[in-house]
Amino acid sequence: MRNVLGLMGLFAVSCVADEDIRDGRSGSSSSCEDNVCVLAGTFAEDLHLTADNIYLLRGGVYIGDDVGETTLTIDAGTKIYGESSSDGMLVVTRNSKIIAEGTADAPIVFTSSKEEGSRTRGDWGGIIINGNAPINSCGDGDFCEAFGEGGTGYYGGDNPEDNSGILRYVRVEFAGTLVSPDNELNGIALQGVGSGTTLDYIQVHMNADDGVEFFGGNTDIKHLVVSGVGDDSLDWTDGWSGRAQYVVLQQHPDAGDNGIEADNNGENNVSVPMSNPALSNMTIIGSDGPSSDLGILLREGTGAYIANTIVYGWNEASLDIDGSTTWDNADSGFLSMESVCLDSKTNFKEDPDEGRLVSGWFYDGHNNIEGGFVILDPLNITEPNFLTETIIEDAVVIEDSFFDDVDFIGAMGEEDWSLGWTAYPER
User: Fold this and answer.
1) Distance CA 135, CA 119 (A)
2) 25: in domain
3) Residue 234 half-sphere exposure toward CB, CA atoms < 13 A
């Protein structure tokens, strides 16, 4: 790989855009030499990235100004580097779109500007998409907006069908800059993103904080791999009510927290719209490392429907339900599981103060079991194999057009849909 950093100081600022009054950002620059292009600032006009160039994100690169519609189009096979020294990140603002359509043979790759072998978690900021879909962090009211961590802009609104574009066959590596203490960026942050957005065939690898986090909104996702992140692999909060199918979450032994960390609203557990996603065909893999905590943590009043899922190899427990509002949801059926298999050192984290056992709730569900499967090579962090030794059948059929009607439990049946476009570099 060419030395990207060695070329970055050669370019002057050009293409200055109008000032963004609302966030205090102004201008943009896009300059290229020897097929290396530096992007910086706020782009209020459409931008097209092509595979014959490579691109560097210098500082916060904002697509749109939160008012007009700007479209970022990225061709298959394009490589985009986040500059480590300036905490490069990509933010798609409300009313704008990203159209990033890779292929299995030519994925779009966002990665660190450091040389291969020197890359690590937190080298750059990651991708943030802000939409106009509902969130619940304002309390009462039909319209709610919030300002994203790390100065990532406003998000939230009253359009559940809002469209922020397409991510397909996209890989995000070595992101998650520490902006300030307890304020790290996620690999992909989906902030108030609506159901008109398409998210399919996405990998987040070696992020410093969470892999993918949903902050409210209604967006769906299919074919997701999150590997080796430093905190939770999949996180949701503030009223996310989208859907997900075919999800692999793999923790590495040197870092990480929970496979899924699920909240409604930490300040007000009954805030509406309440988090209530539907998720099916997941394989959630822990590790034998000291930070391997919970496979699925359901707390802060979240609802959810979780089906056809394998939870494997977690140190503390496979499953925990925390908080009175969350338990109310579990007792009412607003939080439920069907055809879920657990296989960890301990499967249930029981808290006598909650008044009910997690194990009892789990076995009240339909076709939930412990053990009974073998994943071929789940703990291999450089060449994993997430297929099961035998197909675990008895999958529940979900009456929803988003979900494919499949007869297996876990993220994969006989086909490994992750081959060809994912990668698992350690550095």
Assistant:
1) 35
2) yes
3) 28
Beta strands in 174-277 (DSSP E): 178-180, 183-184, 188-191, 198-205, 212-215, 221-227, 234-237, 243-250, 260-262
3-state secondary structure of 150: helix
Beta strand residue intervals within 50-187, DSSP E: 54-63, 71-74, 79-82, 89-92, 97-101, 108-112, 126-130, 146-147, 154-155, 165-173, 178-180, 183-184
Can you list the alpha helix ranges (DSSP code H) found in 232-315? none
Q: Is residue 42 included in any domain, yes or no? A: yes
Question: Domain tally for the chain?
Answer: 1
Which of the residues in the chain have pLDDT under 50?
1-3, 5-24
Q: What are the residues facing 42 on neighbouring strands?
A: 62
How far apart are the C-alpha atoms of 153 and 135, rounded to whole Å? 15
Q: Are 197 and 219 in contact (CB under 8 A)?
A: yes
Rg (CA), the chain: 21
* Residue from 158, 124, 112, 108 nearest 138 by CA: 158
Q: Which amino acid is at 191?
A: Q
Q: Which of 73, 79, 72 is nearest to 107 (CA)?
A: 79
Residue showing tokens 């009974």: 372
Q: CA angle, corner 353, sides to 348 and 356, nearest 5?
A: 55
Q: Containing domain of residue 297, as a range?
A: 4-388
Euclidean distance between CA atoms 264 and 251, whole angstroms: 24
What single DSSP character describes residue 273?
Answer: S
Domain assignment present for 177:
yes
| pTM for this entry | 0.94
pLDDT tens-digit readout, 267-295: 999 999 999 999 999 999 999 999 999 99
- Calpha distance 185→289 (Å, rounded): 23
DSSP at 322 = -
**Rounded-to-integer distance, Cα 211 and Cα 206, Å:** 8
CATH number at residue 134: 2.160.20
107, two tokens: 């994925």
Q: Of 169, 259, 160, whose CA–CA distance to 216 is shortest?
A: 160
* Residue 154 and residue 130 in contact, taking contact as beta carbons nearer than 8 Å: yes
Tokens 């905190």 — which residue?
231
- Backbone torsions φ then ψ of 32, nearest 5 degrees: -130, 145
Distance from C-alpha of 91 to C-alpha of 67, rounded to nearest angstrom: 14
Beta bridge partner(s), residue 173: 205
Separation CA 49–CA 264 (nearest Å): 37
